[in-house]
Model the fold of this input.
Amino acid sequence: MNIAVIGTGYVGLVVGSCFAESGNDVVCVDNNEKKVADLKKGMIPIYEPGLPELIERNVRDQRLSFSTDLAGAVKRSQVIFTAVGTPTTTSGAADLSAVYSVATAIGKAMNDYKVIVTKSTVPVGTAEAVQALVQKETSLPFDMVSNPEFLKQGAAVDDFMRPDRIVLGSCSPRAIDILQELYAPFVRTGSPIQVVDIRTAEMVKYAANAFLASRISFMNEISNLCEAVGADVDMVRKGIAADSRIGSAFLFPGVGYGGSCFPKDTRALIQTGLQYSTPMRILEAVEAVNGDQAIRFVNRVIRHYNDKLDGKRFGVWALSFKPKTNDMRDAPAIPIIERLLTKGASISAYDPEAMDEGKRIFGSRIEFAPNNYDCLTGADALLLVTEWQEFRNPNFERIKGAMRNPIIFDGRNIFEAGHIRNLGFTYYSIGRK
Ligand SMILES: NC(=O)c1ccc[n+]([C@@H]2O[C@H](COP(=O)([O-])OP(=O)(O)OC[C@H]3O[C@@H](n4cnc5c(N)ncnc54)[C@H](O)[C@@H]3O)[C@@H](O)[C@H]2O)c1
Done:
């Protein structure tokens, strides 16, 4: 099948590459000329495990190409996925300007029947608005499908290749047939394709992210109470996770969720609730708890030094909002570092993949170390903010040798407290005794 994917970011690049891998001819379109030029040269703008091999193979076999020519891509394609960004506006609602401008451009380029599929996370009612914009430009037939994407950065290729479910929202049997054919290779192991109406599909995505964000904030709030009452959140977590009605995912306390999805999608759903006079009171609390969590972590650091951070130096592991991505959108590391800087501290940071992003955000206001040990040279404390795998079993003697003072603030509870203290560290973690 000939497919166009418009918006070649974390989602579009994975979606396009995976559809090419299953034999389709895919053109990935972006209006960022540098990004497209880099991709044509084989330079991949994001870190995502497994993606470079997929892109290389499918470009070589001429099933995958990159372009800035949206109209050309639309004309040659039967199915058009839109995967442009929908960032937060100042009100908290989703910014749909890219979605709408792409809709108009698709309408202008129409030359035959097309299936137009929204992959971006968009508020309920957006597909109908897109349909109206396309219709304004053309009288040719097309069908709209809402097909929200559930991949996780860091495991995106695997998630797309082996989805838990595919949600297709449309009232067109013709469009559903085409998409079922397209997705057939990905659901051979029995994952369901759920066909619903468009508004329901749009809602499923927000409900999923809101629920996962709620679990994290719930556990963070429980961890705060554990600290206050002298309970151990690790054991509480295991105690509830063993309950088959609850399960273990997304129950780890920490410095709060970040990234390009949970923060913006919870805010957007709160805005949708207000718009429809149905306040999302749980989500408002989820967001408030999350906002406090990074500040709570940094306040513990400040308290340890009696609010005297002038001249103190901290090593920060790491910058990305979660492991296995270079994405720093809404990363907890940002407010943590900013607050320490305003208190007069100096920061050395290390991240396995997000150093370029970190430099773009902090510039020369912080130092960037070539590895996690150099990051700690002369440090008064290590701040563990992102739990990359390589941090889990480090050489603690080397860490101690590099630091001015052996203090660890563990924002992800990755170390065992007794062990760390036996090694001579002062150790703080989240919600543990
Ligand atoms: N990142 C995730 O993990 C994830 C998961 C599921 C869903 N989503 C949703 O998917 C959408 C895309 O997310 P992302 O993380 O890939 O964003 P992104 O910012 O990484 O990528 C968006 C891309 O769209 C391009 N773009 C913007 N306007 C354009 C236009 N007019 N024409 C062509 N290209 C244009 C940008 O240059 C950029 O490359 C969002 O709605 C997001 O909420 C993201």
